[in-house]
Design brief:
With 377 residues, this protein is an alpha+beta fold. The strands form two sheets. Strands 1, 2, 3, 4, 6, 9 and 11 form a seven-stranded antiparallel beta sheet that branches. A four-stranded antiparallel beta sheet has the order 5-10-7-8, with no helix packed on it. The termini are far apart. A hairpin with a 2-residue loop joins strand 2 and strand 3 (235-236). It has helices spanning 6-19, 24-36, 40-53, 58-70, 74-86, 96-122, 130-143, 176-181, 183-194, 238-241, 245-252, 349-365; strands spanning 202-203, 225-232, 235-236, 266-271, 275-280, 287-295, 300-304, 307-310, 317-319, 325-329, 335-343.
C-alpha cells in the first residue's frame, strides 16, 4: 500500500481475510485498496465486512458514506454521513485528514437535511391553522433528526395525559393581552421597589449545605439570582404585596393554581449581569409558568427544550417548566421579569380540585405541611 501497488495489496489483504475473518482494520485496508483501484463494488463488500465486525465503527461508517457519495448516490450518502457523525470521536482525538473528512461529512449531511426539509415542508404550505402548522413543522424536524424529543421530567409530580409543549400558543391564554396591557403599571411598581434601600430581593436558591446541590452549587444563597416574592409556596407575602398592590390585584384575576403550601408562586425574578441559570426542570406539570419581561437588556436569552428565545419588554410567554430549560444574562445590566404560575389549561375544574385535595392529603399524612419547591426561572 505504501508503494502504491493497491492491486497487489488488495490480493494480500483478501488472502489474509480468506483465512480469518480478521478485524475491522483489515477490512478497512482492503476497502481502501479496492477504492484506490476503482473497484467500488469490492470496496462496498469490504466495508460491509468491517461493519460485520463492529456495526458502530466510526471509520467504517464514514468510509461507507464516502463510497456512496463517490458512486453518485447522493441521496444515500447524506443520511449515511449523518449515521457516521453520531459515532464520531471528539474532534481533538482525530488527525488532520480525518477532521477534514468529518467537516465534509457535516457539509453533505446538512445539505441533504436542508433539501429534504424544503421538500417536506413544501407539502405544508399555507394549510392548517397556526398551532397545527407549528406541530407539523416540529414533526418534520423530528423526522429529520434536527430536534431532540424533550420530555416532561418534573422533579415532584407527574400528571398523566398532559402534552409536553415547550412554549404554549398564546391563544390558549386569552388573558395575556390584559396582562401585557398593564406592563407599565407593573414596571412602575417594580421601580418603586428597586428605589428603596431595602428591596427585599432574596437569593432564590436557598438550600441546606447538607443536601446534594448538583447544578445549584454556584447559585446557592447567591444574590446573583434574586426574587422579590409576592406569593411563595402559595402564601401571600403581605409586606411585599403592600408595595405592589396593583400587580397583585392583577395576578388575583388570573387562573393561578391554588394548592395550599405549594402554589401559586409569583415574584419579580432578577438575574445579575453575566449570570447563567443552568439546565433544570420544575416540580409538576399540572401548572405552567408565565414570564412578563420588564427590564431586559440585550444579551438575555431563555431556552426551553429545543427553542431559545430573546426577551422583549412587555411581551409575555407561557412555558412548561418540567421540560429542561435554562437562562442567560450576558449583558452588563440586571434582567428582571415578573414570574408566576397558572393551571395547565388542559385540566378540568374537577381535576384541579382533586390535585389540590390529594396534595393536601399527602401533607396531612406526613404530619406537616410539606412545601415542595424547585427553581423556576
Amino acid at each position: 500500500m505504501s508503494a502504491g501497488d493497491f492491486q497487489l495489496a488488495a490480493r494480500l489483504w483478501q488472502d489474509g481475510l480468506n483465512q480469518s475473518t480478521g478485524d475491522v482494520s483489515a477490512w478497512l485496508n482492503l476497502a481502501a485498496c479496492q477504492r484506490a483501484t476503482g473497484n467500488l463494488d469490492g470496496a462496498f463488500i469490504a466495508v460491509d465486512g468491517a461493519l460485520g465486525q463492529d456495526p458502530r465503527d466510526f471509520m467504517a461508517l464514514l468510509m461507507r458514506a464516502s463510497l456512496l457519495e463517490r458512486a453518485g448516490r447522493h441521496r444515500d450518502a447524506g443520511p449515511a454521513y449523518g449515521t457516521a457523525l453520531l459515532q464520531a470521536p471528539p474532534e481533538h482525538a482525530l488527525d488532520a485528514a480525518t477532521r477534514r473528512a468529518v467537516a465534509h461529512a457535516r457539509e453533505v449531511n446538512t445539505a441533504y437535511s436542508e433539501e429534504l426539509s424544503d421538500v417536506l415542508k413544501s407539502h405544508i404550505g399555507g394549510r392548517g391553522g397556526e398551532s397545527e402548522s407549528r406541530r407539523v413543522n416540529v414533526f418534520v424536524d423530528f423526522v429529520l433528526g434536527r430536534r431532540k424529543n424533550y420530555r416532561q421530567e418534573p422533579v415532584g409530580y407527574f400528571y398523566p395525559g398532559l402534552p409536553a409543549i415547550e412554549f404554549w400558543d398564546r391563544h390558549e391564554f386569552p388573558w395575556l393581552h390584559e396582562l401585557e396591557s398593564q406592563t407599565e403599571t407593573i414596571h412602575q411598581e417594580l421601580l418603586n421597589v428597586l428605589g428603596k434601600a431595602d428591596t427585599d430581593f432574596a437569593p432564590y436558591i436557598d438550600y441546606s449545605d447538607s443536601i446534594p446541590l448538583d447544578q445549584w452549587k454556584q447559585l446557592n444563597r447567591s444574590p446573583r439570582w434574586g426574587a422579590f416574592h409576592l406569593r411563595e409556596h402559595g402564601a401571600p407575602i403581605a409586606k411585599n404585596i403592600a408595595r405592589c398592590p396593583k400587580t397583585y390585584e392583577l395576578l388575583q384575576s388570573l387562573p393561578q393554581p391554588i394548592v395550599p403550601n405549594r402554589s401559586p408562586a409569583a415574584m419579580f425574578s432578577a438575574l445579575a449581569p453575566h449570570t447563567h441559570i443552568p439546565p433544570h426542570t420544575g416540580v409538576a406539570n399540572t401548572r405552567l409558568v408565565v414570564h412578563l419581561p420588564l427590564i431586559v437588556p440585550d444579551g438575555c436569552r431563555f431556552r426551553v427544550g429545543n427553542e431559545t428565545r430573546s426577551y422583549t419588554d412587555g411581551e409575555a410567554w407561557v412555558f412548561d417548566d418540567t421540560i429542561e430549560h435554562e437562562a442567560w444574562n450576558d449583558s452588563n445590566e440586571p434582567r428582571i421579569i415578573l414570574l408566576f404560575d397558572v393551571w395547565n389549561p388542559r385540566l378540568s375544574q374537577w381535576e384541579q380540585e382533586m390535585i389540590a385535595e390529594i396534595s393536601g392529603a399527602l401533607d396531612e399524612f406526613n404530619g406537616a405541611a410539606t412545601s415542595v419547591s424547585s427553581p423556576q426561572l
